[in-house]
Specification:
Blueprint (H helix, E strand, L loop, with lengths): L2 H12 L2 H27 L3 H16 L2 H11 L4 H4 L5 H4 L2 H26 L3 H9 L4 H31 L11 H12 L2 H29 L22
Helix pairs in contact: 1-10, 1-11, 2-3, 2-7, 3-7, 4-7, 7-9, 8-9, 9-11, 10-11
Length: 243
Amino acid sequence: MDFDFYLSTMWSVLKALPLTLEIWFFGVAIGLVLATGLTWLRASGYKLGEYFTRAYVFVFRGSPLLVQLYLIYFGLSQFDFIRHSPILWPILRDPMYCTIVAMALNTAAYSSEIFRGSLRAVPVGQIEAAKAFGMPAFTRFRLVTLPIALRLALPAYSTEIILMTKATALASVVTIMEMMGTAQKIQHDTFRPIEVLTCAGVIYLLLNLSIARLFAWVEYLLSPHLRPAPGQSQQIKPVPEVL
């Protein structure tokens, strides 16, 4: 076993980690904002907003992310009004921006359904009790509905975040040299696919493990029943997470 080759490959792939994290961060952040808006539209009671949200979720959950990335990067540039737009063209001609847009649009569809389900899963008795105490609607949402919904959404949303981390590997198909793109270049230069892809897979695995542990810690903070009472000495373990 050539340990020097493994170490050099790991180091070369790790050099592309900041770019991978940049794509992941902006894709997830923009997707979170879009998902919040879609959730509000779906719960607002406006028929037009509900129909739009249903159609959006159906399209982006029903088609592969790779197809969506190809359509955004290769397809939209076929339209003259986009190529001549001073706003759209600087974004859609850049493969990194196209990848971020595709990831944001895709994760927004999945995340909005996660958030909608968690809001609907909030026990009605908790909301009725808050009403009985005379809480205004916004205070009731901020202190009762939102904390419970966040706690309920975290397990599914953490899985979605991990899926988006792995989805950053698709950026390599539009010429972005993130971790997978770097690994593919090394593979083509050395003709040693097993060693190279093993190194890349280990890095992705460790990255996703870190994200899973982070969400497990956040879930622990949002779950009072998992924290020891004042003066209690026994250690309470956090909720186990699933990669």
